Amino acid sequence: MSRKVLLLVFVATCFCIAGISIAADKGPADMVLQAEKDKAKKPKPAVFPHAKHQEAAECGACHHGAKDGKQVPYEEGQEIGKCEDCHYKGAEMPKGLDSYKGAAHKNCKDCHKKVAEEKPELAEKFAKCMPCHPKT
Ligand code: HEC
Ligand code: HEC
Ligand code: HEC
Ligand code: HEC
User: Fold this and answer.
1) With 86 labelled, which of 6, 13, 94, 130 sits at a CA distance of 20 to 30 A?
2) What is the CA angle 127-50-119, rounded to 5?
3) pLDDT at 12
4) Which ligand is closest in space to the CA of residue 115?
C-alpha cells in the first residue's frame, strides 16, 4: 500500500473509533444522585444503577430536552444534561418540578409504582423510600 492509502485508512479508522465512542455515550453504569444546585440541609443521596435501567427502559423514559420552556421528547444522539440543569429552585417550572427532588420523585417513583403493580413480588423491595435511599 502506498503511504497515501495507509494515511487514508488511518484517518478513516480514527473517525470510525470516534463515531463509535460518541454513539456509545451511555453515561456512567452506576450513579449516586445528589442535588448540587439546591443543596439540602440534610442530603439524601439516591443510588441509581443506570446501566440496569438502560436494559429495562428506553432512554426517553427519563431523558428529554426543552425548547421555549416546553419539554421536547428524547431524540437519539441528543445532548444529555443533568436533571438539575433545568429542574432547580427558581426555574420557570410548575410547582413540584422546580427541584431535582420533585422531578426525580415524579420520574422514578411513578415508574416504580407501575412496576410494583405489575410485579407484586417487588412490592417489598420497592416499599417506602427503597430501593433509592437505603438506610445507612
Ligand atoms: C424511586 C426512587 C426514590 C424513592 C422511592 C424515593 N426517593 Fe427521594 N429522591 C430520589 C432522587 C433520585 C432524588 C434526587 C437526588 C437527591 O438530591 O437526593 C431524591 C431526593 C430526595 C430528597 C432531597 C434530598 C437532597 O439531598 O436533595 C429528599 C428529602 C427525599 N428524596 C426524601 C425521600 C423520602 C422521605 C422517600 C420515602 C418516603 C423518598 N425520598 C423516596 C429518589 C427516590
Ligand atoms: C430510568 C431512567 C434513565 C434511563 C432509562 C436512562 N437514563 Fe441516562 N441518566 C438518568 C439519570 C437520572 C442520570 C443522572 C442525571 C443527573 O446527574 O442529573 C443519567 C445520566 C446520563 C448521562 C450523563 C449525563 C451527564 O452529563 O452527567 C448520559 C450520557 C446518559 N444518562 C445517557 C443515557 C442513554 C444514552 C440512555 C439510553 C440508552 C439512558 N441514559 C437511559 C436516567 C436514565
Ligand atoms: C434541558 C432541560 C431539561 C432537562 C435536562 C431535564 N428536564 Fe425534565 N422537563 C423539562 C421541561 C421544560 C419540562 C416541562 C415542564 C412543564 O410541564 O412546564 C420537564 C418535565 C419533566 C417532568 C414532568 C413531565 C413528565 O415527563 O412526566 C418530569 C418528571 C421530568 N421533567 C423529569 C426529569 C428528569 C428525571 C431529568 C433528568 C434525567 C430531567 N427531567 C431533565 C426540562 C428538562
Ligand atoms: C421506566 C421505569 C423506571 C424508572 C423511570 C426508574 N426505575 Fe428504578 N427500576 C425499574 C425497574 C424495572 C427495576 C428492576 C426491578 C427488578 O426486577 O428488580 C428498577 C430497580 C431499581 C433499583 C434497584 C436495583 C437493584 O439492583 O435491585 C434502584 C436502586 C432504582 N431502580 C432506582 C431508581 C431511581 C433513583 C430512579 C430515578 C432516577 C429510577 N429507579 C427510575 C424501573 C424504573
Assistant:
1) 130
2) 35
3) 55
4) 4
Residue 11 has pLDDT above 60, yes or no: no
- Does any ligand 3 atom lie closer than 6 A to the CB of residue 71? yes
Distance from the alpha carbon of residue 102 to the mean position of ligand 2, in angstroms: 17
Is 107 a pocket residue for ligand 3 (Cβ < 6 Å)? yes
- Cα 27 to Cα 30: distance, rounded to the nearest angstrom: 9
The residue assigned the cell 431535582 is 100
Instruction: Please report how many Cα atoms fall inside a 13 Å half-sphere around the Cα of residue 28, on the Cβ side.
Output: 9
93 touches ligand 3 (CB under 6 Å): yes
Q: Do the Cβ atoms of 72 and 65 come closer than 8 Å?
A: yes
Question: What CA–CA distance (Å, rounded) separates 54 from 39?
Answer: 28
Whether 35 lines ligand 3, by a CB cut-off of 6 Å, is: no
pLDDT in tens, 93-109: 999 999 999 999 999 99
Q: How far is CA 96 from CA 6, 68, 81, 92, 99, in A?
A: 58, 19, 20, 11, 7
